Structure formats: C-alpha cells, structure tokens
Amino acid sequence: MSLTNTPNANRLHIALYGRRNSGKSSLINALTGQNTALVSEYAGTTTDPVYKAMELHPIGPVLFIDTAGFDDEGELGRLRVEKTEQAVARTDMALVLLSEGELSLEKQWIEKLKKRNIPVIAVINKIDILKDAQALAARAEKALGQTPVCVSALKGEGITDLREALVRALPEDYERKSITGDLVGDGDLVMLVMPQDIQAPKGRLILPQVQTTRELLDKKCVIISTTADRYELALEQLAHAPKLIITDSQCFKQVYEHKPQESLLTSFSVLFAGYKGDINAFVAGAAAIDKLGPGSRVLIAEACTHAPLSEDIGRVKIPRALRARYGQQMQIDIVAGVDFPKDLSPYDLVIHCGGCMFNRKYVLSRIEAAQAADVPITNYGVALAKLTGILDKISFAGR
Amino acid sequence: MSLTNTPNANRLHIALYGRRNSGKSSLINALTGQNTALVSEYAGTTTDPVYKAMELHPIGPVLFIDTAGFDDEGELGRLRVEKTEQAVARTDMALVLLSEGELSLEKQWIEKLKKRNIPVIAVINKIDILKDAQALAARAEKALGQTPVCVSALKGEGITDLREALVRALPEDYERKSITGDLVGDGDLVMLVMPQDIQAPKGRLILPQVQTTRELLDKKCVIISTTADRYELALEQLAHAPKLIITDSQCFKQVYEHKPQESLLTSFSVLFAGYKGDINAFVAGAAAIDKLGPGSRVLIAEACTHAPLSEDIGRVKIPRALRARYGQQMQIDIVAGVDFPKDLSPYDLVIHCGGCMFNRKYVLSRIEAAQAADVPITNYGVALAKLTGILDKISFAGR
Q1: Could you tell me the domains of chain A?
Q2: Where is the Hydrogen maturase F dimerization domain positioned along the sequence (chains A, B) (predicted)?
C-alpha cells in the first residue's frame, strides 16, 4: 500500500540556530542518519531556511528548520539573518549551537526564543576538533544558565544524549492537541458532510477531511460521510441521530435546518480554527465584527502566497459580507505570506486564514502580535460563521 | 483549505519521444505555460526520464514523461535509450517529435508504441526555425502514415492545435475506470472497515482509503467508516444493512463472519487489483495456485524498490503461505523495481504487487508480458484472498 505522508504542518518543528559554520546542517544529518542537508566547509552555505521532513526516533514526524548563521554579515548576510528571525515564529523547539569564542549572540538568541516559550537546547558541536570543549561547556553554563549537550556530528558522538534531551524538552502541549477535542469519544457516531464539487483534486480529499477522518478512527468513533445533497438520505440510514455533525461551512445553513435536535453541530473550519490557533481568541475577536463601522479598517491576512481556494473566502466572501453591512467605503487591506505588518495599530480587526499549511506555533505567534497591539483577531472560519449568524449555534472543541 | 494533490498514479501519463535536441523539454513547457523542464541548447540534457505532474487544460491532471533522445550514442547514450525504452511500459499517450533528416528511427518508435495500443501524435517542433516545415510534414505523412501537428514551442505557435489533438487521441478507457465499478451507485450505503493501527502515518489515511472514499462521495453513496474493532458497533448504528462492505484484507475473516447476509463483501486490495490491472487475468492466475507443487517456481514482483508495508505481504506472508502448502523447498524469487525478468518461462506463476504507485498501463504491460510467455499472473490482494480461502466469497468490480 502506498502511503501519503504526515503533513508538514502536523510535524514538530525543530529549528537549529547558530553562527555560520557551527555545523547545523551536519547535526541534522547526524540526528537523522541521513545525508540530506547540504554540508559545506565554507561558512554561510545555508541561505533561506531549509525545511526537512523526517522521522526522528522516538519523537516521530518532525520538520527540521536549518537556518542561516545568525552572525552573517554584509548586505546579503543581513537579509539571511532576517529570514532566520522569521523562522522563530514557527519554531516548536530550538537547538542553539555554540561556537568557540564569545557567547553574547548565543545568549541573545536563547533569550529571544525563551521569551516566546520555545524550549531551547544549547549544543556544543564538533567536540572531536574543539580545543577545549569542557572549558566551553563550563563557560556556556555560566553565561547562558543552561548545561549544553556536547556532540560530534561528524563522529556521531553524543547524538543519543541529544535525542534524549529533545524528548525531555518536548513542549507540554505536544501531541495533546486534538481536532475534535472532547466533543466525541469511543463508539460515538459522527457525521461528516463533505461536498466534493469544487474543492479537492480528482481522487483526493482535502487535508482537513483526511485529518478529521483519521482522528475519529483513532478515537474509535463510527463515521458516516456524505455529500451535502445526500445528507438527509444519510440521516435516514441511521438507527439513531449522530452525536456530532461536522460540515463544510458552505452548506452550514442546510445542515442546520435539517439536523436532528440532539446532534451537536460544528464545521471543519471552526474545528481547525481551534486546532491551528486559539479558538477563544478567535471567538472573542469575531465579536468585534459587531462593533465595526463604515470608517473601520480591517486587515485580512493569508499565510500562503498561493491559496486559490481560501483566496475566495478571504478576498471575496468576507470583504463582500463586511461591506454589505458597513458600506462600500470600508477599508480592507489584504496581505499574504510573511508580509504581516509589524504595526497592527491602524486596524480595528485582523481576520487570519485557517493557516492549514502552517504549524500551530506560527498561527499563535500572529495571535500574540495582535494581542500585543490590542487589536482583536479572528479567523476565516469563525468570521464567516459570525457573519452568517450561526456562531452561537456551533459547538467548539476545547474551549 | 490546503489540498493534497492528485496521485501521480492517477494521472494520464503523456510521454515525449524524439531525437536529442528535438525540443521535448521546451514543448512540455509550452504546453503547460510553465518553465519547469530544464531546457538547454545542448543535445542530451535529459538523461533519466523526468516526470512532471501538471494540470493540462482541458484534460486535467497529467504526468509528462520527458525522455532522453532515442538517438543517443556511446556507452552512456545506450543506457539512456534503455531508460527511454522502459518508459514505454507506463505511457498512456505519446508525442513523437520529428526532426529534419531521415525518419526511420521515428517510424520505428511510432510502430513500437502503436503495437502496444498507445495513441501516438507526431509533432514537428521548431517551425519558427526549420528550413522547410511543410516539406518535412509532407514527407512525414508519407513515411509515417499520419499527419504531424506543427508547432513552435518557443513562439507558442500551434500549441492549441496540439492540445486539441491530444484530446481527440485520448485512450478510450481514459476516465472510465472506476474502483467500485457497478457494485454500488447513487444513494447506496457502503461500509469501509479501515484499521489504522500500523498502516498510515499520523494524521493521514493510506491512498486506497482516500481514493475509495472520494469515488464513493462522487458517486453520491453514503459511507460508514469504522475500524475493525468497532465494526459490529457500526453495524448496530444503521437502520439497514449496507449494500457493500469494503474491508482491509487483514480483517477479512472477522468481517465475513459477522456481516449481514444481504451485504456484498470485498476488500480494498481486490478492488485495486481490478482498478490497477485486469481482475479477470488475476483471478484466473490465482487458480494456478492450486496447481503448484513442491517443485514449482514462483516469481514475486514488486513495482516499488522501497515498499515497507507491502514488503511484508510479498516477502513474508505470501511465501510463508505457499511454503506451508507446498513445502519449504519451493523456489520463490523476489524482484523489485524495473528488474522484471525478460524471460518468464522458468516460472509457474507470477504474483505482482498492487502497483498502487504506478499507472494502470504499467501493470497491464506486465500482465501482457506474462500472457505472452504463457505464465499465469495474479496479484498480492487476489493471491492472499485465494490462499486464505475467501476468493469465492468476494465481490469484484467490473468483471
């Protein structure tokens, strides 16, 4: 049987930071036993962060982020360091590689990462060629307040210790996050309403449908799946009402109107808003929609630069619904990719995409930015539910 | 919403054949409007066939196979031509590019392709720089018995004509093949028994489960999905028995013993044996298992060189079952990848993998090879069903 892979967005993102030539790429190779990262003896080989999906025993599917040296210089070097800075927003765990010499830059980066609640492991690499690894370790312990793990990526020494350190430092919520939370459990009947008309390429299902199906099977639920136009027929096939109905948002009204009274109802996009972000923040942010006016300014932010389907929601549907309510003059700015404004203060509301291609950390870092600027933030799915008047009829996971 | 892509195995495989520097890579770029194939003005840039997944309007998802020139020379050249020859086995449609000069090699290739029932379109590329494209076209028509389509990949001329020619030449069975055939239709209730314990990576479903679910939704069936350990509970949730139960082969016995009498039963691997091959040939081939003896010689052939899961079936389960029946001395050869023996006559039976990573054409070409050598051929799923005595209890699609 052929397998499709764990989506990158679901992998633990482990980023490596350090000076040029500190051996970040070699360390990834040593950890995975593969020769995947390009290793060169010249400093500054890695420019844009390189993402490498791997199985890392015993953690499971991870995504290594191999960054450019944070001490890079010159015009191009500054650009590289900026890209390295941007990688912090999606880092679940960090390895900071120490080099001989002074440790002020390393200290600065460790503090920056810790401030964002990212677990950090300090690593001394190249113990096979360092003049005095022990002295560096002692000095690092003093300067950084943590004991570095000593390894030689080249000789494979200390790699087991480093794996163990990674397992010990795993973020607390790692593996705990679930799509459907406590809405359903063992033996529950769950209905999925999944129109296939325009959404997925031939022979495929869109990722949220696959991930939700898999989670429900893992939870030992029984799943009944149907398109919207056979939804009522599907209900008739059942001996009793489903505990929960999860629908594509676009047919929410139909599903709501014909649903058995005892069935809970939610949508894929609302569940993913919680799975990939902070549902409480998004629901609170959606309340701000009622307080907008003709002179309000709204920021619509997409994580992907190419998002043909959600584009329709973010660039057409949501602006149309907002302008229908508050007038055509309302100022709505749309940004994509990493172009998230540093200054959010001009905005009355931020509406973010589902972020399905990114890890949760990345979406949370944008929520934090909005909260720091005191600007309410919601997301596509929750905003659409609010704008169509159904947000109060929906069940949420993990609130 | 993020999308997963149409699997390559489900795409129409369009291969380009021609001499070195006939402009095969440029033509792919012109057809897709993308700059994906590496184009060089030096002959012989393409070595191993290059596979490029694309959306080709109006056909849909295709896989272009960009081959090395069939006139390549020298030791390395002969190796390249051999790879080009191997690409024929998976070609659904072929474009043969004509070059100025004599056309004997082109004629030879067109005949080779047509002998395998592969639709062929002759193409004259570079009409912007050819000395006399019309004369070449007239000559080709005479020599090859078909009118070439004249294009300039560089200038984009004639590309619309070529697209139209492709649509006209589509293989007859293109788009007609279905996984579940006429076993179920609109409104039917179908149960999927899908244990998730060891099969798929976290957060994913294996490809046959995704493809079957999608096809059933497209057919407007209602689907009830369950793991094996909640199978009886799932049946209890239903107002009536499902029309069809599709189970993972590994829990066939349990599912069969508890199935409602009126429900048809089949397995994912048996359905895919028909979808990806010729179910009649495979069932006939499975009958040969009864006629083996201690001195028989069996070939087990895997399409993938890395197949961690099916490996277990082909390398462990099937040999074990065969030897349990006919003795430990039975000779069982295992080959993987393109190492399919040219001479099959020493064998009494060929058992092929499901070929889920390959297109149907490729599996059919191996069936043809076995039939030409008068050796019965079956596949993993059908052989397992036969060996466990359930083949006569199963429903087939499209027999």
Answers
A1: 8-168 (3.40.50.300), 189-271 (3.40.50.11420), 278-393 (3.40.50.11410)
A2: 180-277
Angle value at C-alpha B172, between B167 and B178, nearest 5 degrees: 110
Cβ contact, residue pair B208, A1, below 8 Å: yes
A93's tokens: 């765990």
- List, as one string, the DSSP characters of B31-71: HHTS--S---SSTT---S-EEEEEEETTTEEEEEEEPPPTT
Cα gap B183→B109, rounded to integer Å: 40
CB-closest option in B206, B211, B222 to A224: B222
Q: Are A196 and B213 in contact (CB under 8 A)?
A: no
Residue A156 CB neighbours (<10 A): 12
Q: A121: part of which helix (H) or strand (E)?
A: strand A120-124
* Tens-digit pLDDT profile for residues B58-113: 777 788 999 999 998 888 888 888 889 988 988 999 999 998 888 999 999 999 99
Angstrom CA distances, A165 to A121, A158, A161, B127, stand at 7, 11, 6, 64
Nearest by CB to residue A239, choosing from B10, B229, B238, is B238
What is the tens place of the pLDDT at every residue in B168-225?
Answer: 888 766 666 789 998 999 999 999 999 876 556 677 888 889 989 999 999 999 999 9
By CA distance, what is A219's nearest residue in B? B227
pLDDT over threshold 80, residue A54 = no
- The residue type of A370 is A
Of A6, A200, A227, the CB nearest to B3: A200
Q: How far apart are CA B22 and CA A190, in angstroms?
A: 57
Q: A1 and B354: CB-CB below 8 Å?
A: yes
Task: Decide if A222 and B233 are in contact by the 8 Å CB cutoff.
Answer: yes
Q: Which of residues 302-331 of A touch B (CB under 8 A)?
A: 304, 309-310
Q: Does B258 touch chain A (CB under 8 A)?
A: no
Contact A199 B1 (CB under 8 A): yes
Tell me the pLDDT band of A41, cut-offs 50, 70 and 90: very low
Give the DSSP H or E segment for B121: strand B120-124
DSSP-H helix ranges across B64-185: 74-87, 104-115, 133-144, 159-168
In terms of Cα–Cα distance, which of B75, B22, B14 is closest to B50? B14
Q: Summarize pLDDT for A242-271 with one digit per residue, the tens.
A: 999 999 887 888 999 999 999 999 999 889
> Looking at beta carbons, which residues of chain B come within 8 Å of A196?
214, 217-218
Question: Chain B residues with CB inside 8 Å of A227's CB?
Answer: 217, 220
Chain A, residues 7-36, CB within 8 A of chain B, namely 7, 9-10
